[in-house]
Amino acid sequence: MRKLVGAMLVVLLMMAVLAGCSKEPTPQDRFAKYIALWNGQKFDQMYDYLSNNAKKKITKEEFTNRYQKIYKDLQITDLKINFKKPKEDKQAEKEQAQYSFTASMNSVAGPIQFTHKANLKKEERADKKNWYVDWNTGFIFPKLQEGDKIGIDTTAPIRGEILDRNEIGLAVNGQVYEVGVVAGKVTDQVLEPLSALLKMSPEQIKKAISASWVKPELFVPLKRVSMEDEARIAQLIALEPVQTRKVEARIYPYDKAAAQLIGYVGAISADELEKLKDKGYTSNDMIGKRGLEQVYDEQLKGKPGVKITINKKNGSKEVLAEKPVEDGKTVKLTIDVDVQTAIYDQLGKEAGTGAAINPVTGETLALVSTPSFDPNQAMLGFSAAEWKALQE
Known about the structure:
The protein has 15 helices and 16 strands. The longest helix has 21 residues, at 2-22. The protein has helices at 2-22, 27-39, 43-47, 52-57, 60-73, 188-198, 202-209, 230-237, 255-262, 270-276, 291-295, 297-301, 337-347, 375-380, 384-391; strands at 77-82, 96-107, 110-125, 128-133, 149-155, 162-163, 169-182, 219-225, 242-251, 265-267, 286-288, 305-311, 317-323, 331-332, 352-357, 364-370. The strands form five sheets. Strands 6, 7, 8, 9 and 14 form a five-stranded mixed sheet that branches. The protein has a four-stranded antiparallel sheet with strand order 1-2-3-4. A hairpin with a 5-residue loop joins strand 12 and strand 13 (317-323).
């Protein structure tokens, strides 16, 4: 009797297993697995869930690379794809199914959210029927169609100014001349006087005009020169290949008198970028190199505006996400520039320091250190000889 009961249990168990194996997968379960892979950004595995029709339009390599590139370029984080399984689903009885899903994520231009519909098809592969996603570019972003491209536009913030107690500018935004040449017109005869006027070696100039992007008719910027350096500008313009244009730059009206206090800005170095990249700095940034320009750099620099667009084949654009530009904040000091320059003039060429403090309030009115340097030239760039002379 016991043997008979045992045999019956084995038979029932085998029947249950066979019934489970014969049960076809439902479209909602298949789509749920696809969503799980998407949330994990396992794009190569997602491709295996695509319908035959979708696979004809895009290869596995193209599919994987496109997702990876878009998510990397847009700095996508906190990706979350949501799909709620319906309680009653009669679509499993058909050959096609459709489900809605929502997507949310953060990007370099702020949050992106959308709702989209997915179509699934029942297809037979290797003698087995299953459900596959009829994928198209709308799954990445609904308004993204075949042939469209993703664009990122940035707007640089205006750097905040540094003012004294009477709102007189100590570090302000102004203009300088950017001096360059038409690459194809530079001759050996021009190199020597050009090198002397720009305080660049002939090799540096040759390297600039032979860069990979340069064409003979293009303007190649070489150096920036103060608009007050009129004599040098006149000599440069007299050389045939030389051209100038006005560009935005940092200006220090009281140059040497406040240089040690205010400091100056310059292009970010590789080492500085490595330390500051987590704070939103990029390789194109100008940052404070010393003094108060460096101390208050995060407050002064502001935050760039970013716009992500879908560039359509017909030339139109669809805005996907946008973060407005935030200009830097103005920093107002207790320094009195008249007191600052008076102490600097008194020290003259002697090495020393001087300070002035309001005895009633304790406010600092002046901080002077000599010898000093010209922060305008530091911002524009010292030559090797100028750096050596300054250090010595």
